[in-house]
Queue: 2 jobs
Job 1
Amino acid sequence: MNKKTNIMNNSYLLTDSNILLENIQNIATSLSPNTYIIPVLKDNFYGLGAVTAAKIYEPLPFVKCFAVAHLTEALALRESGIKKDIFILGNILPFQIQTAVENDITMTIGRTGLVSEIADICKKSGKTAKIQIKIDTGLHRIGLEPGSDLDSFVDEFKQNFHWIIVSGVFSHFADLGDVPRVESQYSLFEKSLNTLKDAGIDIPLKHISGSEASELFPQYNLQAIRLGRRLIMDHPTKPLGNIKEVASWRTYITNIKGRKKGDNLGYGGKFKLERDCTVATIGIGYGDGLNLDLVGIHAPVLIDGVRCPLLACCMDQALVDVTGINCRVGDEVTLFGYDGKGGYLSSQELALMIGDYEGCGLTSAISYRTAILFD
């Protein structure tokens, strides 16, 4: 058992709480005093642990509410004692509405007819429901399109306004590399806001920007920005310099063996050694979330502060070239992050090696077999 982490797992993902807090405070100081932050805690906060992160963030005055993707994620936060508003970014399913209302979960209106469905549940329970209105300005996942969709919503809302509280209106940019499209989407969003205003619908909170939009187009920050990746790592290719990575994924060496030139490693002998070398087996594989594309390009891990290439990977174990490295069975291996000895391997760097845009995809892929820890 590792003394520092006091766990029995083969691996652990360790988040530095101080850096997590420092990151969000750095972002807040760069914003207008009238702009809030909405932490996006979906997918268990990209694998880092949503409940603990929410408890760190909730006392902060500039944190307006929390966003998640699914009702189950919202319920987990509510059941853990989170009091601030929690809203679901996607359309809620009809059979989930009653539970959302009972637990004071804010629902997104991303299709026509949903307001009436929610109101019907509210009438039976005698409770009101909070909603945020999603405007489809071009991403075309969910949302009310300006025009007939929005007009239908206005009619529905006016028929059911006793039961429905509008807490916000939002949209999402589709392609931040296409500036004219960004401008067009924002124009559609403004047009939709005016439609709602003209209909007499009060809108307490307006937001359109996520992490990257808030970095590249701060003029669209409005009253709030929704942040997921930006809370835990900087922009992958255009870093602003005030955000540090917060998480380190570590496992252990389980075996060390000298291997000969020509030996085949892994299932099907896919990797053939081109020289004599020392090979370490580590206690995780693709079943734990180790990215096979990283293995395929022999991306590095950190052992004793040194970058060592991955060689092959099975479901529960992987092989690493440790030739000339001072290591033994039980030593820690850092897949990304900080190694505790001054070494650092950026998850953003690794993600870009395989053409992935954001390193949080690596954290999100980590399986339940990894212990999730904060220090």
Job 2
Amino acid sequence: MSATAAVQRRADDEPVRGAATGTTILVVDDEASLRDMLRIVLQRDGYRVLTASNGREAIETLKTTTVDLVLSDIRMPDVGGVDVLRAAKEINRDVIVLMMTAYASTESAVEAMRLGAVDYFTKPFNMDELRLKVRQQVESGRLRQENVLLKRALKTSHEFANMIGRSDAMLSVFSMIQTIAGTNSTVLVTGESGTGKELVARAIHYHSLRRSQPFVALNCGAVPETLLESELFGHMRGAFTGADTMKKGLIEVADRGTIFLDEIGEMNAVMQVKLLRVLQERRYRRLGGTEEIQADIRIVAATNQDLPKLVAEGKFREDLYYRINVIPIPLPSLRQRRDDILPLAEHFLARHARELQKPVLAISREAAALLSAYDWPGNVRELQNVIERCVALERSPAILAETLPLQVRGAVTPTNSVSDTERLPVPGSAAMPEFGEGFDLEARGEEFYRHYMALALDRANGVQVRAAEMLGMSFRSFRYYAKKLKLR
């Protein structure tokens, strides 16, 4: 009777113990009979079992399938078990790896343990011992996962009112919010675009005595100057052409609550005077009206501009600046709080994986290092967009380095002074590639176009017209090359 047949008979005779539905095991061995034997035994114990006849095949499987436990031979032709171990831990650092060796020397097994394998078996091994070890490791892994989820649910020191941070800078912001939330003082939140100024405003509101009343947000830079007064104060019927009915302004809508005035530095001089009156007297009039209305509101303002500089240049009223700057809260940029990059990335990963229904569970070690090293000129907003893009594109159980955008991978080093509307840099100082026999200039040119067009599309959030402007190309030319190079 063959070894496989004997194991099959024994497996059929034994009851199923510790069924582990939902657990996937990858068996890697170049010996077909051993692979089949392990597959039969482990399937009988309730596991989903995948097999690979060599290390290269195993690594490809790990890239495309979520695997909970790897059982791999150490010595195999071409790509060995230690290489499989490294790849498995790179893709998913929580994967469990058990090694097998047929050699008396345990030197390579010890090396595997050092790299993250939890145990090893010397062939021939006792099958019951292996089954027990697998069951113990699966249970241990499940408990670790539950512990991680519990810690995430309880880590209140890292999360505060939908904001995530464990850096000293953000913990200081959280402390400030808690301290001033119960007052009615006006707050000025400053920081670069994408740092989360509206989240701070909402946190202040929802921790205040006004939490049961409305929170209303207005981006002063997004409303035309001619409409801003009507939007903020409301208007009477007939106040201007097209005003067919009376309209409440946002200050009135936010009565007894909080109004958030984002990009207040964009407000024109006339509106600055009218807002100053609201802050001083807590009263205002609708556009075209004569009745004064009481303004029982708390104002939280925000800007990414240097207001003292605007005051010095005569572009922002000094008295208004002092009125809104009663309690200043400066927000750090993401590059100033690098300890928060990975917790934020993991938070966005969980959210977008759930929304997109993708089984992307982790961030590979190499991708995590690149995310931590990047300067994030677009701050938290840019990080969220990058993670959403990666989840949408990723085919493996973890975000890999090659899925990250070019600028995050270091192909382009962004500078904080470059805005979305400015043209992208072109390589000037980089050494040009040598050419000789077999050199393909056309292919080199396509590579150049593909690189910068993909980067421009990423910065323009997929809007081709805007990406073409950033590159100094006509839209017709951009569309032609995008179709030719199959850019989406």
